[in-house]
Design goal:
mainly alpha; two-stranded antiparallel sheet; 11 helices; 65% helix; disordered N terminus
Length: 209
C-alpha cells in the first residue's frame, strides 16, 4: 500500500523499514583462534628445528589438529611461512624506521641489511623463499617481501642522495644480493664470518665512485 507525504509516494510495510544489508563480517571464533595460534607456534618451532620444508602434516599433528584445519587457515606453505615470519618482519620494519634519520645513511643501510641476513639465516630455507617471493607479489610471502622492499628502498634512496651509493643500484637487486648472502651463510654454518665478508664485498660494488 502507498501513502503520500509532502506529495511524495512512500511505501509502507517491511520493505520500507528494512535496513540496507551490509556484509556479514564475523571475528574468528574462539576455537578457531586457538587452532590458528597453536599452528603458528608449532610451525615456528618446526621451521627453526627442521627448516621451512618441514612436513605440514607434522605441524598439524603437533598442533593437535587435522591437516584440513591447517589448510583452512593457511592455503599453502608460503601463506603459513608469511604468517610465522610476520613478527620478525615487523621488527625489521621498526628497525628501518629507527634508522631513517641516522647521521650516516650508508652505515644505516648496511646495519639494516646485516639484520636481514641474521633474520633470514634463523630458519633454513627462508632466504630461498624470500628470493622467490621477491619476483612474485601474489606469493604468500609477499606480505613479508613487499613492505621490506619499501623500507629498504627508503634507506637506499637516502644513501644515494648522500652520494654514498651508486644511483643505478635498485632495492630489488640489493634485496636479492642480501638473500643470496643469507643462503650462502646457511650452506656454510662453520664459517661465522662469511656474512660480513660477503656483505663487505657487496658494498664495495655499491659505493659511488
Amino acid at each position: 500500500m502507498a501513502t503520500e507525504t509532502a506529495g511524495q509516494p512512500q511505501t509502507t510495510g517491511p520493505a520500507a523499514t528494512a535496513p540496507a544489508r551490509t556484509p556479514d563480517i564475523r571475528p574468528m571464533r574462539a576455537d578457531a583462534r586457538r587452532n590458528y595460534e597453536r599452528l603458528l607456534t608449532e610451525a615456528r618451532t618446526a621451521f627453526t628445528e627442521h627448516g621451512t620444508d618441514t612436513s605440514l602434516e607434522d605441524i598439524a599433528r603437533r598442533a593437535g589438529v587435522g591437516i584440513g584445519t591447517l589448510y583452512r587457515h593457511f592455503p599453502n606453505r608460503t601463506a603459513l611461512m608469511g604468517a610465522v615470519f610476520q613478527g620478525e618482519v615487523d621488527a625489521l620494519l621498526a628497525h628501518a624506521r629507527e634508522l631513517a634519520d641516522a647521521p650516516q645513511p650508508c652505515a644505516a643501510l648496511v646495519e639494516w641489511l646485516r639484520a636481514i641476513i641474521t633474520h633470514a639465516t634463523t630458519y633454513r630455507g627462508l632466504s630461498r623463499a624470500l628470493m622467490t617471493a621477491s619476483a612474485d607479489d601474489s606469493s604468500g610471502m609477499a606480505r613479508c617481501s613487499v613492505p621490506m622492499r619499501e623500507a629498504g628502498g627508503a634507506l637506499l634512496t637516502r644513501a644515494q642522495q648522500a652520494g654514498a651509493v651508486r644511483p643505478d643500484v635498485s632495492i630489488s637487486d640489493l634485496m636479492q644480493l642480501t638473500n643470496g648472502i643469507a643462503l650462502a651463510v646457511e650452506e656454510s654454518p662453520d664459517d661465522p664470518k662469511l656474512a660480513d665478508r660477503l656483505l663487505t664485498l657487496t658494498l664495495r660494488g655499491l659505493k659511488a665512485g
